[in-house]
Protein 1
Amino acid sequence: MGYPPDLTLKVKLCPRNSQGALPLASAAEMSLTTASRTLAPYPPGDVKLNNLAYASWPATTTGDATLSWSHRSRIEQGVGGQLVAQDAAGNYTIEGTLTIEVLIDGVIKRTFPGLTGSSLAYTLAQRTADDADLGKPVQFRITPVNGSYSGTVRTTPCFVMS
């Protein structure tokens, strides 16, 4: 049986074995909160670094790093069950915005919230200001946001900026 989204259910599990079932009165009560996953925006696809696709993602880049992507739309893609490969270019309307975090050696150093475009330049000057040790790996964390809903968070592979 399905339940509507965004509610908290009180549940009890009554395991059963060859000795019988746990009485309902003896079962511990647990809370389960449902989520509106179907309302969460899709993450972007076709993510590239300096115009290089995931399969060719560089281990090192010299100078500025430009992250680019194609928007995905759960509404537009949902019509007719249209499947779109993650590495396919797309021309969909963005639902909400994107938040991109820059991680250096796994630590968030800079956040770019409310993005609606399809690219972001992270300059070598910004990288140096965020952490002067240019030997540490850089990653981008991409979060699609639509109102109070966040979609699947994606983190890029590591690379070094020099």
Protein 2
Amino acid sequence: EAAVASRRATLILAQKDIEDLENELGRLLADETLNAVENIEIIPVTLPGTDRLTVDAKDQLISALKHSPILEQARLAIQASEINVRVAENEALPKLDFVGNVNFNGGGTTMHSGTKALTDGDHIGYDVGLEFEYPMGNRLREAQLQQRRYERLQSVTELQQQADQVGAAVRERVRAIYTAHDSILAQRVAVAAETDKLK
């Protein structure tokens, strides 16, 4: 009786796992007739294949590194930090600006004559010039430049760490595929042995 109760508890847990996997499969199929509200029972019409699936870990790793949204976000962060470095480099340089100004003056003895002179452009003044700025010492901008360079190095380091994590996850998934296949074969042998034992 203890053995039967133990096997019944194992069966209940196995049935729960099957229902969870059916719900997950229904979600992955994205079928409108399948939803998580109703009970889903998926009955396979053919036996699952037992051929060993060959997965090219290198190809999967390249694909994951190319299409991972986490790595794409890290690459965009590096591009943003490089732009910040260029801006900081430009701000650390001496500044030379070309400045200009145009003035419209309406001179006249009456309001009408002043307005007419303004609209006709009789009294226009022009100012042009160059402004040169050379900061002495420039410690603030140099410190900002060093900070932006450090942020760029930090972004590159974060990309490398994310790439390592993606690579480890891919290798783990590949091992999980092979382990699941071997486990299925072992379970089938165990089921056949138990069936012979029961007979």
Protein 3
Amino acid sequence: EVGLPLLVHRRCQDPMFSISNAIAYDGQMVHAAGPDKAGQVATILGASAWFDVNSNATSKWSPEEGRVVMRLLRQLARTGIQNPDVYVISPFRVVAHEMRQLLRTEPELFRAYGVDERKWLDEHVGTIHTFQGKEAEAVIAVLGAPMNTQIGARRWASSTPNILNVMVSRAKSRLYVVGSHTTWSSVGHFAELARRVHMGKLP
């Protein structure tokens, strides 16, 4: 008899590994990433967490979620970290676009990071398609679509494992989720995200 070989995964720590294993690999992966050595971003922002943001957005973009992301990025800047190894990823193009626009209003952030603004935004903020095959120490996942009436958008994002799997598996060490826990935690594959990522308190 020939059995299915187990897949050995050497990149992501938990909770990213467990989420990916559950939603995309039917539990067949073996975790072999070794001990978690916290890098600069992890040391500053702490353990993986879900930052619950409930807002009355008129589109998939939630300005309140954007402000939370800015607080996290400013926290990195205040410590003097250079070119932080973090991606800001959303399931939705409009959210990624608006996040880039918000970041452009704060050029001092990029000066603190010691990076070129345009290059950093192109390489660090986008949808999953921007980051296929790439990895970073940490991912800030900006969910968007927080309203009850936006269930169609959330169902689209969660209907297959691909969006969530790519989003979380870009992170080697830490995952920070920014979005409405109430509206996302019971939708499709994102229920696994809610089970694995603990609620956090913003720094």
